[in-house]
Amino acid sequence: MAKKTQTDQEFSALANRMGEKLDVPGHDLTTVVGRAGRMLPRRLRREADYLIQMEMISGHPKLCHMVDPARVAKAEARLRAHVRHMNPEKERRDRLLGQIAGYVFGMLVFVALLITVLAWRGVLGPQ
User: Fold this and answer.
1) Per residue in 10-55, pLDDT tens?
2) Pairwise CA distance, residues 79 & 41, whole Å
3) Which domain holds residue 117?
4) CA–centroid distance for 74 within its chain
5) Domain match, 78 and 101 both
6) Is 6's pLDDT higher than 70?
7) Do residue 81 and residue 91 come from a single domain?
8) Please, how many CA atoms are within 13 Å of residue 37, restricted to the half-sphere of its CB?
């Protein structure tokens, strides 16, 4: 039972760390991974789903032998390594700059189209 508690604490710590770095709320791995969605690469989502599944299975006395400790450790290490290199402030800034760039590009296209139509109709240009 102590091993189960230790595993739960490790998964809870991993979930909190992922929640901080991915900027999603949640205190357990299921909630954090569900809300993170596409912010996690497919390979890592698969690893996180495996950890969630093993967390549920490890609490069952007849199914706990199905847990592969080496694969659990490897999946947890991969998730921790990915989360370690994330910078939430930079990602928020990049997302905002991407939205602003999209708006500015749309306005430039609109202004260019407006000038083209006005020149075509004879409102702008040589008189």
Assistant:
1) 888 889 999 888 888 888 899 999 998 888 899 999 999 999 998 8
2) 10
3) 87-127
4) 20
5) no
6) no
7) no
8) 5
Dist. CA 22–CA 98, nearest whole Å: 18
Q: Cα(20)–Cα(88) distance, rounded to whole angstroms?
A: 8
What amino acid is encoded at 58 in this protein? S
Please give the model's pTM, rounded to 2 decimal places. 0.71
- Look at the block and give the residue holding tokens 């596409």: 38
Distance CA 16, CA 77 (A): 15
